[in-house]
Design goal:
Number of strands of chain B: 12
Oligomer: heterodimer
Largest sheet of chain B: 6 strands, mixed
Radius of gyration of chain A: 24 Å
Number of strands of chain A: 23
CATH topology of the largest domain in chain A: Rossmann fold
CATH class of the largest domain in chain B: Alpha Beta
Number of domains of chain B: 2
CATH architecture of the largest domain in chain B: 3-Layer(aba) Sandwich
Distance between the termini of chain B: 42 Å
Number of helices of chain B: 10
CATH topology of the largest domain in chain B: Rossmann fold
Number of domains of chain A: 3
Radius of gyration of chain B: 19 Å
Order of helices and strands of chain B: HEHEHEHHEHEEHEEEEEEHHH
CATH class of the largest domain in chain A: Alpha Beta
CATH superfamily of the largest domain in chain B: HUPs
Chain lengths: ~425, ~300
């Protein structure tokens, strides 16, 4: 028996940090890793050496998130880095994205897989343009939980009145802009990442704050799919047809393999296959050829049906009665990721779940200024632009609105000439 | 109402299965790199869960430096046979014979030269995707690696020109001659790997467990000496003046012998290793991979040259 089996496992939470180095973002991540004992002695040694080499006196925890030679040469962060820590009861994946305006695409990338966003505010500066940008992007990409961390409280004498004023300013801003107005979970924490106040340990200097620490919030945050009903969505990735001549039992085996994007499935459920619309009941749900009682959201399973239906990669199984519309024209918010601008003349590929279709732009309704959230006119998009656009498709998509289902509401745009991923879309 | 949350191991396993199926669904000629090491052993279990009762939609392949521990090589062959899957072995020594790999010194680590043999094998079989067991927690160049990493026809990794990767929409499209390196266990840590091995009761090569071994101290690390290779040759004969002692050790990672150091440990079961991993103060590569300490950017450099 394992000594670890009695420890509760609250699964896994993915979160991102939004802010710049100036806000203490790297220090915050370094602190979380350090206080949860994720940083090991040799890594700390290496950072100490580098800090000394660069003439710094104290150990610079931000060096932990410092990455590639290519980045050091240019003195910039070019990419999202992923970090890991565990509290023993929950595993965390941090997406660390550079916070500057020209890296909107990196923020959107990091946000796409995050269940929670930490938006950092420098207590001396309050709500800045970049705070607005980060909040808008967290809203756009529909991150379920938002934590506004008012950092550097030590530099404003841990003043409660100033903290309250920043909270009020932030709430007024999101109310005015209509951000997070869908009942999303927003929390505010006064913090000093440098001293570790209210990250893992409660702050003595701010005993006026009775709310949870950052780690307590992370430990308690519900995973993205927990606590709500979602329609069953099963994009088929691969069809398993063993046809093992040595094993006649497997001759008729036809397993539809995929990951459950949302909802649950069990034996007897009546499913509809898309696009052909044919129905059948579930004969078995398996992992690795072994029956399981019920397939859960985010689980990768194999589904066997009672009837022989022609289903292949790119098709989708859904529960009858919860069938999504088949769409050949979509409206979406699109973030452009490529240095080559979006061309209204060209045909692109759209990847949505496991389905790929040719697509053409039908129009750009407006572009969003990510700093002010104002709408501006546009006919094309450059890298880091976000816009409301329309596409028409050669093949129908089985899509839900992104605000309802991130898995079946998201798509990427691919440039066939070089196969690059050039756009990220969220269906309206 | 969806109340249940997957445990962290179930979540990581589900993600890895999804990634492997995406490779199988999107690519025409994928291959799974299997070395007999713990990470690739986990990948084989993931592949079983992804594709059984069918056969794997890809062969297994090992790039053998010729300087691998016999225990690991034997395990590799045994495991592939048990699974009934095809194993391709391509050897760095064959590349040396062809003259495509030239060593600086005869005892130089052959680890980085695996990249050459790998690229030759990719060309030979026209593989368009290689599934590997690299993890982002191993090293900082890996922390920024994509799950599906694009390589041009020279096998080069360009950190400035990687495809953005959003949601779980992986783009494995390539033109002829290019390939994708796919990393299904990107998000696993060393601890996750050991917990998975424990949960799935996976068998491992014996050298992962505590055993006695003659070693010398060389370059600040423990170096196993007088290692008998598969071909009977003895590797790492102690140099004059080096003191050979017998130590109780295990390997945290098994790679090319000259660049993989063991750690002192009396953990002789998976359970003990899990506990030891939870309390260690040294990172996996820091303790044991001599090739990563050459310079601050050595992994990044090797990846640019086609390495995993």
């Amino acid at each position: 028996m394992s000594a670890h089996e009695n420890i509760q496992d609250n699964g896994l939470l993915r979160f991102m940090t939004c802010g710049s180095v100036d806000d203490g973002k790297s220090t915050l991540i370094g602190r979380l890793l350090y206080d949860t004992k994720t940083i090991l002695a040799d890594t700390l040694n290496a950072i100490e050496k580098t800090s000394a080499k660069r003439g710094m006196e104290a150990v610079d925890l931000s060096l932990l998130t410092d990455g590639l030679q290519a980045e050091r040469e240019q003195g910039i962060t070019i990419d999202v880095a992923y970090r890991y820590f565990s509290t023993g009861t929950r595993k965390y994946i941090i997406a660390d994205a550079p916070g500057h305006e020209q890296y909107t695409r990196n923020m959107v990338t990091a946000a796409s897989t995050a269940d929670l966003a930490i938006i950092l505010i420098d207590a001396r500066k309050g709500v800045l343009t970049q705070t607005r940008r980060h909040s808008y992007l967290a809203h756009l990409v529909n991150i379920p939980h938002v934590v506004v961390a008012v950092n550097k409280m030590d530099l404003i004498d841990h003043d409660q009145a100033k903290f309250d004023a920043i909270v009020a300013e932030y709430k007024a801003f999101i109310a005015k802009m209509g951000l997070f107005n869908d009942g999303r979970d927003i929390q505010f924490i006064p913090m000093s990442a440098l001293n570790g106040d209210n990250l893992v340990d409660r702050s003595e200097a701010m005993n006026w704050y009775q709310g949870p620490t950052l780690l307590e919030l992370l430990e308690a945050a519900l995973a993205a799919h927990a606590g709500r009903h979602e329609a069953f969505r099963f994009p088929v990735q691969f069809v398993c047809r063993p046809q093992d001549s040595a094993n006649p039992e497997l001759h008729d085996y036809r397993g539809f393999q995929g990951r459950i994007e949302s909802g649950t499935v069990k034996v007897g459920d009546l499913l509809t296959a898309l696009p052909n619309g044919r129905e059948s009941r579930v004969k078995a749900v398996q992992i690795g050829g072994v029956d399981i009682a019920e397939g859960q959201t985010e689980q990768s399973v194999t589904i066997l049906l009672e009837d022989e239906i022609d289903i292949s990669r790119g098709d989708m199984l859904v529960k009858s009665g919860e069938v999504p519309a088949q769409q050949k024209e979509i409206e979406a918010m699109l973030c452009w990721l490529s240095e080559t601008p979006l061309s209204p003349a060209r045909t692109y590929l759209i990847r949505h779940t496991t389905r790929t279709s040719k697509a053409k732009l039908t129009g750009v309704a407006f572009k969003v200024d990510v700093n002010s959230q104002e709408h501006v006119g546009a006919t094309t998009l450059a890298m880091n632009d976000i816009a409301k656009v329309g596409f028409k498709l050669a093949q129908p998509l089985f899509a839900d609105a992104y605000s309802i289902n991130r898995g079946t509401g998201a798509f990427i745009v691919i440039d066939e000439s070089n196969n690059n991923t050039v756009g990220a879309g969220m269906i309206l | 109402m969806n109340k249940q949350t997957l445990s962290h191991l179930d979540w990581l396993e589900a993600e890895a299965i999804h990634i492997m199926r995406e490779v199988a669904g999107q690519c025409e000629r994928p291959v799974l790199l299997f070395s007999g090491g713990k990470d690739s052993i986990c990948m084989l279990r993931v592949a079983e869960k992804a594709f059984r009762p069918g056969k794997f939609p890809f062969p297994l392949m090992h790039i053998d430096t010729g300087h691998n521990y016999k225990e690991v090589v034997d395990f590799r062959d045994k495991r592939a046979a048990e699974l009934g899957e095809r194993l391709i072995v391509r050897s760095v020594e064959d590349s040396m014979k062809r003259g495509t790999v030239v060593l600086k010194t005869p005892d130089e680590s052959r680890n980085k030269h695996q990249a050459v043999t790998l690229l030759e094998a990719i060309a030979e079989f026209e593989f368009d995707a290689c599934i590997g067991g690299a993890r982002r927690d191993e090293e900082k160049a890996r922390a920024k690696e994509r799950v599906m990493s694009f390589r041009d026809e020279f096998g080069s990794w360009d950190p400035k020109n990687q495809r953005p990767e959003l949601w779980s929409l992986y783009n494995a499209r390539v033109h002829r001659g290019e390939n994708i390196r796919a990393f299904p266990i990107s998000n696993w840590t060393e601890m996750d790997v050991w917990q998975y091995i424990e949960r799935e009761k996976l068998e491992l090569p014996s050298i992962y467990f505590s055993h006695k071994r003659p070693v010398v101290m060389r370059g600040g690390a423990m170096m196993p000496v007088n290692v008998q290779l598969v071909n009977g040759e003895i590797l790492n004969v102690p140099k004059a003046g080096e003191e050979v002692t017998e130590q109780v050790v295990r390997f945290r990672t098994v790679g090319d012998i000259p660049c993989t150091a063991p750690v002192l440990s009396d953990a002789d079961t998976v359970e003990k290793i899990v506990i030891e991993t939870a309390t260690t103060t040294i990172t996996e590569r820091g303790a044991t991979r001599l090739d990563d300490q050459t310079s601050e950017a050595s992994m990044e450099q090797r990846k640019k040259e086609g390495y995993f």
